[in-house]
What does this fold into?
Amino acid sequence: MAGSRAEQSHDLDALFFPRSVAVIGASTRELSIGNRIIKNLHDFGYTGLVYAINPRGEEVRGLKPYTSILDVPEEVELAHIVIPGTYVPAAMEECGRKGVKVVIVNSAGFREIGGEGEELEREVLAIAREHGIRVFGPNCQGIINTDREVRAYCNFTFTRPAEGAISIVAQSGGVAEMINQRFAELGTGVRMYASNGNACDISIPEVIRYWGSDEATRVIVVHVENLSDPAAFLEAASEVAAHKPVLGMKAGRTAEGARAVSSHTGGLARQEVVTELLFEKAGMVTFRDVEEMCQAAVAFSTQPVPRGNRVGLITNTGGPAIIATDELVEAGLVIPPLSEGTRDALTEQLHAAASISNPIDVLATAGAEHFRAAIDALMDEAEIDSIYINFVTPFFVDNESVARELVEVNKEGRKPIVCNLMTDKKEWSDTVTILREGGIPIYTFPEMAARSLAAMTRLHLLRSRESGEPVRFEDVDRDRARAIFDEAWESEHVWLSSGQVYEVLEAYGIPVARWKVACGASDAVAAAEEIGFPVVTKADSPDIVHKSDAGGVVVDLKDAGAVREVVERMEVSFDSGDLQFLIQEYLPGGRELIAGAKAEEGLGHLLMFGMGGVHVEVLKDVSFALAPISPPEAGHMMDSLRSRPILEGARGGKGVDREALLEVVGRLSQLVTEQPYIREIDLNPIMAFEDRISVVDARIGL
Ligand code: ADP
Ligand code: MG
It folds into this structure.
């Protein structure tokens, strides 16, 4: 499509490629939104027709005024509504009668203020549905499209983006504008821009999907505060990210930040981990820093995605190459040695004193032919996937021809290139322009160039990760588990009893230590004899959450007398009406691991796996994934733990049964997926040995 509206018509064509725009609430006041939008449309060179709707019939910016949109003789595709919230429904009715296709409601006073505002937003949406109007907003900025065939600046802000290949969507107008501004400063163009505020109708997933089929958009940058429909987001983002880089960031990482979000846009923010997992599941590249996301987008907008994580460096100055190397290695990239053939070739082509390894130091005196030799060598080197260049502009070198040479190679698009350009941007402005216009991403610091390359490499890794179907074991007894949940539900218990928990786990084939529930000492002794000594005795009551903290766990009981004594002691100390006892096989000496899951609204369950036991909060060595998971995802959860070497048996220690452990995580994923009313489940600890895995403590909440 590279320009103009999509060939097949789409609802959003009227939003991004409007043939005519009416501003309802056009104002003669210079500093009003109703004036600013018209000014922006004019200044940006909008190619369609603009109509000013002003109830007092005043001329606005030389436009003939209409007191109502119904008086406009021609068709109106897009209308901005900038009048106070309470008048919006009436204006929407008129838009409906006029046949307007999309309305951007800039006005505030809707869901973000709660109560009446929510009511008003529902009313606006109902009118829109009745007339088949799509709504963008309310409480939003609007859109920009730099396409020369439309030049639509349907927005009241100030940054004038150049034509480019990056499209930006952000819920928050402030963030969208900030990103837009940064691209302008970086000399990078923008394709389309959208900030949809409360997003009552046209959603971010819908916009992402639209841009997915916009050829001129090469990269999509997304910033969200809350996902009202995570599943829809996942679906749209996965579809687009499979063929176009989608970069994303989520606001509200901390509890404090999440609160600021909900008071701001009126949605419920979740912790960032869930959103990041969702982004990753969709194949999006995630960021925690807006600047880093913008800088990476510049590289994504012109460079191919690397085919691996091996970087070749070229430098004409020593220090910055070391900084870059550190940053690249820390980001998990590899800097392999050059092959002998490459080294021999370069020895002939570079200065005698040049350092021919990786990084290749071509020396400050290197000219275009030296840079060319080095970059060609790396392009041909099979062991290299991407190229990092440090280029300082010495006064004694023809820097422009170096820049032109780099651009020549870049045109071939064989491997991605980033360039840390150390220069006086005024004195060497031509060099800067040659590189920029030639599509070479340039950076002011080695770290940022390295991070951008690392981000591109992350996309490669995401795209090449093993997928695979969700785990599904056929030997599970769904009905039995279901019956236990029904029983718990009917008795109005939020937490399942120990007996119920272990039965559910057994129904799903999750191995548990041999157990029995007992009432009173004699029963406990009989249970212990059946299980076999030594045993563990645990106080079992819905009131006791952390049993060991309360003195409710005694391990290694070797005979009947010991069990009796412990039970009698606990009966006194806990003094609870429905106190029972869990008698359990004693499994000493294993690694204590944790696996769990927690329901996430609209998303299914968040799975957790990691180092467990009573120190889980201190160690915080856990990894997350969204259920249902595939076997490779389960493997990834285990491999991303810091303690991975311990599990594998580092330094002579015994490792644990990896396959059995992954199976437990897979079965847990299947359990929460098939029994979705589980609110939370914790297996802590799972005792892991070289040849055996057993759960010894578990909780399930509904
Ligand atoms: P809680 O988490 O309610 O305090 P647990 O049942 O997890 O109680 O027991 C606390 C700790 O006791 C476990 O982390 C583990 O170290 C030990 N433990 C519990 N049950 C067993 C068992 N069957 N075999 C060996 N150690 C156990
Ligand atoms: Mg426990």
In short: The longest strand covers residues 591-600. The longest helix spans residues 446-464. The pocket of magnesium ion (ligand 2) is lined by residues 684-685, 697 (CB under 6 Å). The chain has 24 helices and 29 strands.
